[in-house]
Write a structure and sequence with these properties.
This protein is an alpha/beta fold. The protein contains nine helices and eight strands. The chain starts with 6 loop residues before the first helix and ends with a helix.
Length: 293
């Protein structure tokens, strides 16, 4: 593990605002255990005009498995979705929002498996989820108070994926809101991985700090996001350029925080931006995580 360099950034994560409260705070459904023992996910990439089923509220039953991926830690239980076929496949670690590892994030993991990625949805909250802003902030604060444990958790997630015979060894990390900020922190301080994708997460604008990232960075942000103003995004992009870090950063007009993970919350306003962000993301993952297969 690299020494922690982003403690100031992590502290900012505790300030994540109530816009995240639009997230589903559901715990796993009563039949989740049965659903998680289902088959591997058929590989069926989305068409150019198609969004993943999870973010439009049309996901089917869960098709992955619960997995303990941190040695000696039975409280931390992630969700693993594996494509059909022998592989080897590229891999992703996806990082939940402020309310924890809920079913929508599991459904997104299934969607990435359908794109051909072995996908591990990490659990930073020891199996807990929040159902109110107060609970979510308390869970985030607990993580922020022990950033080394958070980095170790994600290092273990990457190691778990790389240990699999059906994984190429190339792994990307991505997250939304709280998880987007964590993905950036992991890009700065975690073990080597090939990609960092940020959806409206807290940012760093210090070129010297960002220079520790050794791969291209993807970012999707929202013009109407009061918690992450466009000026902060532009400063982040400028700092990446100053640090010599390739990047694909975009601010979408007329959408708010959280628009991508829950397109079904306002399909008319969010669909166009979400589709463009999805196509950018697929292209980004193709050139960073699939590259060299």
């Amino acid at each position: 593990m690299r020494p922690s360099r982003s403690l100031g950034f992590l502290a900012l994560s505790a300030l994540v605002f109530s816009a995240c409260a639009g997230g589903d705070a559901d715990a796993p459904s009563a039949d989740a255990s049965a659903a998680m023992t289902g088959p591997r996910v058929p590989v069926a990439p989305t068409a150019d005009d198609q969004l993943p089923s999870a973010i439009i509220g049309e996901a089917g039953p869960l098709m992955g498995l619960d997995v303990e991926y941190v040695d000696g830690d039975t409280a931390t239980v992630g969700y693993l979705a594996v494509p059909e076929g022998e592989g080897p496949f590229p891999a992703l670690v996806i990082i939940h929002e402020w309310n924890g590892l809920v079913d929508r994030v599991r459904q997104v993991a299934d969607n990435f498996a359908a794109e051909g990625y072995v996908t591990l949805a990490a659990d930073l909250y020891d199996g807990r989820t929040g159902s109110t802003s107060e609970e979510n902030v308390a869970l985030m604060t607990e993580v922020n108070e022990n950033p080394d444990r958070m980095i170790a958790n994600l290092n273990a997630a990457v190691a778990h994926l790389k240990s699999r015979d059906d994984v190429t060894g190339r792994v990307g990390a991505m997250g939304w809101c709280f998880g987007g900020g964590v993905a950036l922190s992991f890009g700065l301080d975690g073990d080597h991985h090939e990609a960092t994708a940020i959806f409206y997460g807290r940012l760093v604008d210090d070129p010297e700090q960002l220079a520790h990232i050794d791969h291209e960075v993807y970012g999707t942000f929202a013009e109407l996001d009061n918690g992450i103003p466009t000026a902060e995004v532009m400063a982040f992009e400028a700092a990446l350029r100053a640090a010599g870090i390739e990047n694909d950063i975009h601010i979408y007009d007329e959408v708010n925080h959280g628009f991508w993970l829950r397109v079904d919350g306002d399909p008319e306003a969010r669909t166009g931006a979400a589709l463009d962000a999805w196509q950018r993301l697929k292209a980004y993952l193709d050139r960073t995580v699939r590259d060299g297969m």
